[in-house]
Amino acid sequence: MKLKSLVFFLLIIQQSFAQKLPTDYVNVFTGTSNSRWTLFPGPTLPFGMVKLSPDNQENVWNGGYEYTINSIAGFSHLHSMALSGLSIMPATGKLELYPRQPKTFQATADGPFGTMWTAGYRSRFEKKTEVGNPGYYAVHLLDHNVYAELTSTMRTGWLRFTFPETKDARIFFNFDFPIEEKTEILDVSVTKVSDTEIEGFIKQKNQYADEFTVYFVSQLSKPFLKMNGWKTQHYNGNDKNYGTFWRDEQSMLQDITILHDKELGGIFLTFETSDNEKIIVKSGISFVSIANARLNLAEETKGLRFDFDKVVNEAQATWNKLLSIVAITDKNEDNKTKFYTSLYRTFTGKSIYSDVDGSYTDMYEKPQQLKAPADAVYSSDGFWGTQWDSTPVWTLLTPVYANSWVNAMLEMYDRGGWIAEAPTGFEYGPIMDAQHHKALIVSSYMKGIRNFDVEKAWRAIKHDLTTLDEIPSSGGHVGSRSLKSYLKYGYVADEDGPTSNTLEYAYDDWTAAQLAKALNKTDDYTYFTKRSGSYRNTFDSETKYMRRKHADGTFVKEFDPFYFGCKNGWNGSGYMEGTAWLYSFFVPHNMPDLVGMIGKDLFNQRLEEGFAQNHVDMGNQPNLQAPFLFNYSGKPWLTQKYSRLVLNKFYDSTPYRGWQGEEDEGQLSSLFVLMSLGLFEMDGGCGLKPYYDLSSPLFDKAVIQLDKTYYGGNKFTIETINNSPLNVYIHSVTLNGKPLNKLLIYHEDLIKGGTLIFTMGDKPNLNLLGN
After folding, report:
1. pLDDT tens by residue, 108-118
2. Is 589 helix (H, G, I), strand (E, B) or coil?
3. Is the pLDDT of residue 770 over 90?
4. How far apart are CA 512 and CA 530, in angstroms?
5. CA distance 34 to 425
6. CA pair distance 391, 690, nearest whole angstrom
């Protein structure tokens, strides 16, 4: 009997190891070397307000966490675009007030330690002790001999510190620490509520988040003995000595209970601990008030007390539920890792900005209350280029989130009169140009995701595309910067802004025209359809490129199709984050016309040379459609070849690369998810009858669980026959047993459920048509 029991037990263990969950495939360290502030290894929930993660860099581009730096300065709670606040760090031994060295001493992020050139309470760690997965992060802090563990709910951050036996245990709360964007501290306050609770706020501003206040309430599982603090110099917008600190005794604040001071750098709590004693710190965060921070903490930790492990389990269950929307079957485990890591990143960069009760702070720093159907407002970077990545993924896999974002945009329109291209801190972030967030609204409507005020959505879109840009009293920037020139000349004159804006605006106009037609607004449809053809006004019929053009109608004489970027500033004449070569392919709403203008042979020749000579840029927004252009130029087998090439060459699962280019809050991740399923939306899904371009799926099988609230089907299956790294070409495609004569599938057919089967081979089928 004992032998049988042992065999049964071993079988159960074997089965449990064989059945990996989606979160087991997520590598939270992918791409975290040389990454942006919003790409971090620490725990968060889908669109979580709290993104609790280690920081180890100074105020630099791609600041935050760098995988190759083996030290940590603190664990901060917010890693949204341009938002930060409340860094917490445990320490033992000699008191050091600062997590980094004054710049005058030129210390590096890695040390040295234990000398007069101290790195403060920053600690080194060994990589082998660092652990991370969705909902959990842990590391052993070598210099303090403290084991730090992190988890989170939507609006609360949890830290569990395991201390050694010591009379010198401390937990630091840093209010002024470096992030990617230089941030000015406007005001700081902290209060000791009891010997197990503190509360406070940090008021800040930077070039993208005009002004925001982070409120916090932190509760501890063990009473602290004293609360001390320190003062520090803050960045004021032009201080060349930013990062230097006062080191005289006056900067040290002894045993305080309340302090309201702009120059408060932080506080620390002192403890005596026994060996392996655990202290848990849980903090509620809000952008509205301290009362709301306490409410968020109370509601999201109700019944949990200090049960850290239960929070971890709930976070991982949340992620498994979301990631399980797509079930992948494939022999290649690394490809599964790339897929689920990408799907995870699709939902970690952007952040909810409202509280559990639906309250939030608007762009005028006024408290507001959401009303149905709105259920949240968000903070994010720009929506530039999202018509090719985030929009199709959200609308296909998580229509509930797509709908929520649309309502958040309309809430912004109600409060500020405009929808932001980049709602950083739910304000009008002056980041990118064009209005590609409109594609999310239009695509949602076209796909039947309509739990929002459609007429209001139309009014907002029409307003934003017909009203000249301005700097609102709330700060930031609203509208399209080059619209005046675009309306006057039918293109953006070289004297007034980037030629690329003409192409971007024309696409936005087309999306508006499609919604106008769907709503039977005939005059508006005619007006925006005419504007959507403005790309023709920048086309040079001799060189066959979209060229810079003066206000007098002549082309700029100097011409290099591979010159990158804008002259005379980021938004000056030229091509925003691109080249003339690249933007000459940017007419996603009228590909037949573009192919005809350039000529099919030249179009294909240039594009093939672009892949061979690295003119194609699959690491940035304006050229992400490149592999799928062949579907419109008579060579769909090259779409199959190059889309598979991109999936294999431009993505990996290592910390050192991950994505080729800037990940931008999940955009390149979303692209991988879509392309690996063999799907793409050239026009952003904004046509009256949305469809997906088809290409070479990466996996043997993928099953999509359709959202029954919005879509009628149960599940949609994508299968491949004879799939392999060499068999990248489509020989035939069937939908529910019926052959497809074109490489596209309509959204309305997909959401009915069914099975799409690709038969693959190592040679192209030249008879299979594209679009």
Report:
1. 455 444 444 45
2. coil
3. no
4. 11
5. 24
6. 13
- Tell me the residue ranges of DSSP E strands in 195-291: 197-205, 212-220, 226-231, 252-253, 258-260, 264-273, 277-286
3 state DSSP class of 150: strand
Q: Which residues make beta-bridge pairs with 269?
A: 171, 227
Contact (Cβ atoms closer than 8 angstroms) between residue 663 and residue 342? no
Residue 373: asked if its preceding bond is cis (omega within 30°), the reply is yes
Residue 167 phi, psi (nearest 5) = -95, 0
At residue 491, φ and ψ (nearest 5 deg) are: -165, 165
* Number of residues written out for the chain: 771
Query: Across residues 552-560, what is the average pLDDT?
Result: 96
SS (H, E, C) 444-456: HHHCCCCCCCHHH
Tokens of 168: 């010198």
Strands (DSSP E) contained in 362-427 are 367-369, 378-379
Amino acid at 231: K
User: CA 736, CA 467: separation in Å to the nearest integer?
Assistant: 47
Specify the amino acid at residue 581: W
Alpha helices for 102-251 (secondary structure H): none
298 vs 301: CA distance, rounded Å: 5
Backbone angles phi, psi at 492, to 5 degrees: -85, 110
Sign of the alpha-carbon torsion through 433, 437, 439, 441? negative
Half-sphere exposure of 390 (CA within 13 A, CB side): 29
pTM value > 0.90: yes
Structure tokens that stand for 153 in this block: 């709910």
Mapped onto helix, strand or coil, the DSSP state of residue 252 is: strand
| Proportion of the chain above pLDDT 70, given as a percent | 92
Q: Report the distance separating Cα 389 and Cα 681, nearest Å.
A: 8
Task: Give the number of other CB atoms < 10 A from CB of residue 642.
Answer: 25
Report pLDDT for 118.
57
More confident residue, 466 or 3: 466
C-alpha triplet 165, 166, 169: angle, nearest 5°: 120
The span from the CA of 763 to the CA of 111, in Å, is 56
Strands 131-133 and 136-141, how do they pair?
antiparallel
**Cα dihedral 719, 721, 727, 730 in deg (nearest 10):** -70
Please give the Cα distance from 536 to 742 (Å, whole number). 28
Alpha-carbon gap, residue 582 to 563, rounded angstroms: 10
Residue 65 identity (one-letter amino acid): Y
Q: What is the DSSP string of 1-19?
A: -HHHHHHHHHHHHHHHHHS
The packing angle between helices 390-397 and 437-446, to 10°, is 30
SS3 content of the chain, % helix, strand, coil (to 5): 30, 25, 45
Contact 406, 453 (CB under 8 A): no
For residue 359, the surrounding DSSP H or E stretch is: strand 359-361
